[in-house]
Amino acid sequence: MESTFECAVCGHMNPASATLCQSCQMVLSVKTIPITIGETPLPNPKTGSRPIRNSVFLHLEGSPAPLEIRLHDGVQVVMGRHDPDNTSKNFIDLGAYKATEKGVSRKHAAFVIQDGQLKIFDLNSLNATFLNGVQVQPYRPHIVSDGDVVMLGQLVMTVRFVE
Predict the structure, then answer these.
(1) 49-93 pLDDT, tens per residue?
(2) How far is Cα 144 from Cα 48, in angstroms, rounded to an integer?
(3) What is the CATH number of the domain that holds 118?
(4) Does residue 39 lie in a domain region?
(5) Cβ–Cβ under 8 Å, residues 99 and 155
(6) DSSP secondary structure of 66-98
(7) Which long-range contacts (CB under 8 A, 24 or more apart) does 72-75 make?
(8) Is residue 20 one of the residues assigned to a domain?
(9) What is the pLDDT of residues 82-137, one digit of tens each?
(10) CB neighbourhood size of 158 (10 A)
(11) Count of domains in the chain?
(12) Is residue 106 assigned to a domain?
């Protein structure tokens, strides 16, 4: 019997050889990513999409320091609020940013680098994900550019790329 791998997004059990979840089509990975709070000043925004180097800063409204995420090609990073059943290392708990009060779901949205571009997926969240004021359709990738504004429910963040 072939071993299986649980999707961090929907919980579906997939064959270990699968690269995409058979249920929600998200990228599957067993890799981990480091997540740190960054104190580095934000770079100036540039227009248009461009390849990601290795880090993305999420400047959350009302927070004095941006959240730095180090991404690796094909590794999805799920954002949401605390879930006692979630043991994934590729998860960002936004509870410190008043996620519950702002309508963030436990598994709200995910970032992933595909084809050298940062993409965001809404994970069928209750209060939706917005990219520059436009609602993101669940489980469909949307390209995120430097300087774009992402809203998870009412939690607002500006995305900045690091060179």
Answers:
(1) 444 556 888 999 988 889 888 888 888 899 999 878 877 778 999
(2) 9
(3) 2.60.200.20
(4) yes
(5) yes
(6) PEEEE--TT--EEEES--TT---SSEEE-GGGT
(7) 72/31, 72/33, 72/113, 73/113, 73/114, 73/116, 74/19, 74/27, 74/29, 74/112, 74/113, 74/114, 75/27, 75/29, 75/31, 75/33, 75/112, 75/113
(8) no
(9) 878 877 778 999 998 999 999 999 999 999 988 888 999 999 999 999 999 999 99
(10) 17
(11) 1
(12) yes
**Are 112 and 74 within 8 A, CB to CB?**
yes
Residue 160 pairs in a beta bridge with: 57
80's tokens: 């949401």
Task: Give the C-alpha separation, 151 to 87, whole Å.
Answer: 24
Which residues are CB-neighbours of 1 under 8 A, at least 6 positions away?
none
Domain that holds residue 98: 30-161
CB atoms within 10 A of CB 31: 11
pTM for this predicted structure: 0.69
CA distances 39 to 57, 63, 65, 67, 129, Å, are: 10, 11, 6, 9, 26
Is 10 among the domain residues?
no
Contact 29, 36 (CB under 8 A): no
What does the block give as tokens for 12?
């579906």
